[in-house]
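User: quick one, sequence for these tokens?
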């Protein structure tokens, strides 16, 4: 089944990781009660990295963030969401661990399956959608990085998400290890049945592009009849994309997934000045088959997306049936509450 125009709520799938995906999910939940998060699984730092190394589990941190973004807002659930996000202090064995990471790791061992553990947490947090890993196994990111050798033409291979995100060199290309990882079957189903698929914002080389490097998932993105929207970052990130223009972000994505097309590129109107830069961005978007949508989607004075503003912008991209119904619903009114 592709699409769900016969349903009262649009089906939205958001792909990403970390704080970027958190922002997208906070916006998407204002438009639909059927939101699926598909999350990167290559983190190797902090609490997630320790649990991955010690227990062999999928790194839980980005999954935990997605659960927090979609959790119900009633007071009896909010305390659990806050506890999930709580990080232990001190200097002992638990120092730095998030409670939610430990719970997810424990549930995965008890139930024997990451997706089952996530579904159970969705039930506990009263989430109507789902949170899924992009692959059922932990993955590793490798990058070809220039500028680290005396000869600028020579690339060095940097391994690991944290190392890639913090490298002082210029990331040229990334890949996953293993190079042909399995996709999460439930994530493929979510992409196929969606009305709207969202990609980004987030760390471009470690949270966004990896979704294009899982072959089955890339094919699902190519095949789906859903509208696809790429949400650009509000600013380049130190390390990964320092010095990148908005246009450059699109070129890099196209280099890693030349067959992929998207319908829209959502850009904060304040982050790309009018004139030549917008002309270049428009040409880059056209190569992806996309129209550029400029909108005020930022928290004032920050490089963070505002959930209400982003929801208002994304709501206009939904198929007409859902766009009209959303505007008349409680969810739709929420999306304009920032005004």
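Assistant:
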């Amino acid at each position: 089944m592709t699409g769900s125009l016969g349903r009262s709520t649009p089906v939205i799938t958001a792909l990403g990781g970390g704080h970027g995906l958190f922002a997208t999910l906070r916006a998407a939940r204002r438009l639909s009660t059927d939101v699926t998060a598909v999350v990167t699984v290559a983190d190797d730092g902090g609490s997630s990295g320790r649990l991955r190394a010690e227990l062999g589990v999928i790194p839980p941190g980005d999954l935990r963030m997605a659960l927090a973004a979609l959790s119900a807002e009633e007071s009896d659930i909010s305390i659990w969401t806050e506890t999930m996000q709580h990080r232990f202090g001190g200097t002992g064995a638990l120092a730095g661990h998030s409670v939610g990471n430990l719970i997810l790791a424990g549930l995965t061992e008890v139930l024997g399956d990451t997706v089952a553990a996530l579904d159970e947490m969705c039930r506990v947090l009263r989430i109507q959608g789902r949170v899924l890993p992009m692959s059922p196994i932990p993955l590793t990111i490798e990058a070809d990085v220039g500028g680290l050798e005396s000869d600028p033409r020579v690339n060095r291979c940097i391994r690991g998400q944290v190392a890639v995100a913090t490298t002082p060199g210029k990331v040229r290309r990334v890949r996953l290890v293993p190079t042909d990882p399995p996709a999460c079957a439930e994530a493929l189903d979510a992409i196929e049945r969606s009305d709207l698929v969202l990609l980004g914002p987030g760390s471009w080389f470690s949270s966004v592009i990896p979704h294009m490097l899982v072959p089955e998932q890339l094919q699902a993105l190519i095949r789906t009849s859903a509208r696809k929207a790429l949400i650009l970052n509000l600013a380049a990130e130190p390390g990964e994309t320092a010095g990148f223009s908005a246009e450059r972000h699109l070129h890099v994505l196209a280099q890693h997934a030349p067959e992929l097309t998207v319908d829209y590129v959502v850009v904060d109107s304040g982050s790309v000045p009018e004139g030549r830069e917008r002309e270049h961005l428009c040409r880059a978007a056209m190569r992806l088959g996309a129209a550029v949508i400029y909108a005020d989607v930022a928290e004032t004075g920050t490089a963070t997306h505002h959930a209400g503003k982003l929801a208002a912008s994304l709501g206009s991209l939904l198929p007409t049936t859902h766009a009209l119904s959303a505007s008349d619903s409680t969810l739709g009114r929420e999306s304009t509450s920032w005004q």
